[in-house]
Each structure stands twice: as structure tokens, then as C-alpha cells.
Amino acid sequence: MLPKPDDFADLIEPFSRRGVDLGLDRLCAALADLGHPERQFAAVQVAGTNGKGSISTLVHQALLAAGIKAGLYTSPHLVSWTERIRLGAESIAPVALRGQLEAVRPIALAHELTPFELVTAAAFWAFAEASLPLVVLEVGLGGRLDATSCHPDRSVIALASIGLDHREFLGPDLASIAAEKAGVLQPGCLAISGPQHPEVQAVLQARAAAVGAELSWVQPLQRNARGELLLPTGADQPASWGRCGLPGQVQCSNAAVALGVLQALAARGWSITPAAIRQGFAAARWPGRLQQLNWRGIPLLLDGAHNPPAAAALRAELDAHPERHGLSPGPRCWVIGMLANKQGPEILQALLAPGDQAWIVPVPGHASWNRDQLVAQQLNPQAPYSVPLVGGVASLHQADDLPRALQSLSAAAVADAQRLVVAGSLYLIGTLLAQP
Fold this sequence. Notes:
By secondary structure, the protein is α/β, with parallel strands linked by helices. The protein is built from 15 helices and 16 strands. Helix 12 links the parallel strand 13 and strand 14 (about 355-360).
């Protein structure tokens, strides 16, 4: 269950005002002034483009099942800032987060920390105060210059699937983006990765060789018709099927990476048994990803799908296993909100199939694509991100906001027993989940 919405606007500057300003110097200096809380716990770092959150929660849940009071740091949040910081099994309490932010704020101001750096500093302080021995750190953006890379003891690193996203900050092509992600690798660390694009694989291998890191490749786990994964059961015993709390075929690769991380931690002395891994994987939950729910009586399927690779994965999942997600065969109705800095036409091209209809809605509080802009892209092949749209511009409609779009489509959805699919931005999903 998600925490209730909270308001830290007086302490956390809006991201839209400060913008992204990647670098390690500011936060490292601030952490030194705070007495180096980041040195008081070991960390697993999770980098990549898509699947970071899933890998993080799978590892974290298995650590908890093993009896290790582990922390978890993720981003973005859906409803509450407190979602980003887990102290053991629970999210940090709002009053506790406020206390951490207030304690860190003078030093944050002195070093001109960005909002993400401020929250990272508060998280490190909270993990240290809670005497957590091990924390799972999800990279926010990139890796080489991400705030989580200020942690000095990242001997085991997970690499999720790396694809095209945040081009304005990480570079225009896969090789550039992969180089920024590979920057998390450090001498002596062990990095676990599932299959990557050949161009990405080459960059990771070159970086690992250059810094003296070990790179271990794992293959996706097998999954049966019931959605169970083939997991280890113990020494000299055959693997057997076990539940995974996270839906979707992409979890086969994410779970393989998480399993590799947990086995690496066990080899380093952490007491993690196959039974704990199986229990943790079954308990894992990650809201806003292939999430089914009824909102005000309207059946919905929610998935952030905020970049082209994630959109392609969502479309493939819905085509291959619609029944798992409450969908019937045939054309789909989409409600889509996309941030203006994303490749809107590419996302739509990946999501929509012939006969589909999409209602474009703004993402509250963020500059967003609208139908007119998307149509203009289609009519101008020289425009950035211009791609042919399946079904043409007639498949696109504009709605003033998300609730009105859902209400106008609800009667048809209920009558057809068809879930509406809401996608395009985790911020859009968060707005929906925050509304009663």
C-alpha cells in the first residue's frame, strides 16, 4: 500500500525550477560536513534504464526475508516522497523525513545541492541513524555522475536493461548513454547484467576492463504459464518453480539480475539462503507497473512506460499475455500522458496497434505533449522524434485532464469488460493513485 500524499514543498525545491545538474562534488562535500553517513553502511547499486526499480525491490525483499534489516532508496516516487526511503520493511515516516531534511538543509544550502542530492543526503543520514548494515541504492539518472555514486562501498552492482532515455543529459545515442551508465563500475566491484544490446555490451565490457571490474552476464530465468520463475532451491538440489510478485515477461531478466546480486552477496558473507530468495521474490510489489485496479468503478491497467524501450516492452507483454492483465483481444483504448522532454511520437509508435485509440492528457504539474504537437510531428518528417504513427493522427484525441478522459471512456470499458490502459509517465500514474 502506498503512503498517503505529503507536502515537503517548503524543504524540497521543485525539480522544474532547479533542473538536472549532474555531478558528485557538491554532495560529496556535503556528506563530509555531515560526518560521512554514507560510510556507515554497505550498498548495492542498481543502474540502467528500465527495470531498476524491479531489481531493487526484488533484492530488497529477499534481504528482508533473510533477516537482514536492509534499506532501499528509489526514485521517482508515485505519491509520497517517503516512498523513496525504506528503513527495513517500512517507508520512512513523514515526520522522520521532515526531521532529516531539516537537519541536512543548512549544509545543503551551503553546498547548493540539487533537490535529488538533498533527498539523497537525507536518505544516507536516515540509513546511518537506523544502523542499517546494507542498503539497495537505485540510480536516479545516468550513473557516472549520479548522487548515489557518492557511496564508496558498492562492491556489487546490478545493471538493468540500458536503452534510449534522457538523451538531453546522457547523450544522443546508445553508446553515449551506456558510457554514462557504465560509469558506476569501479575497481574490484562485481557487476551483474542481463542481456544488453550489442553496442551497450561492448561499452560495459570496455569500461569493466579499464577500471578492473568484474562483469558477470546472466540469462533470463525461465517462466511457466502460471507466471512462476524457475529458482534455485539449495545445494545439490534441482531448481523448482517459485512465485514472483512482479508481473510481466521482463521480470525474467530482472529477476535473473537480482538473483545474481543476491548470490554474489551470499558469497561475500551475507546470510542469504535460496529459501529467503524465493520468499522475497514472492513478496515483491512495485506499484505503477502492470498494475490492475478499479478506480471509481473503472477497470484500469497502469504502467509508466515513460520511454520507447519501456513502451515496446509493455506492448509486447499485452500482445503476448492479455489475459494476465484483464484485457480481452482486439483494439485497445489508451489514456496517455507524456512529459515534453520525452520522445512522444516514438512512445506512441511503440504502444499503439491498428484499431487502437489514444486520448492524450497533460501530466499535472509538468510540461507535457498534447495532441496538436504530436500531429505536427507527424506532418513534419524533419521534426525531432518524428516517426510514422500506427493508425495515423485520427487515432489520437485530446482530453483536458486524466479524470475527464477516464470518465468519458468508462461506460464503454465497463460494458466491454475491457480495462483502459493508462501509460506514458510515472508522474501521471502517481497523480491517479493519489486521487480517491
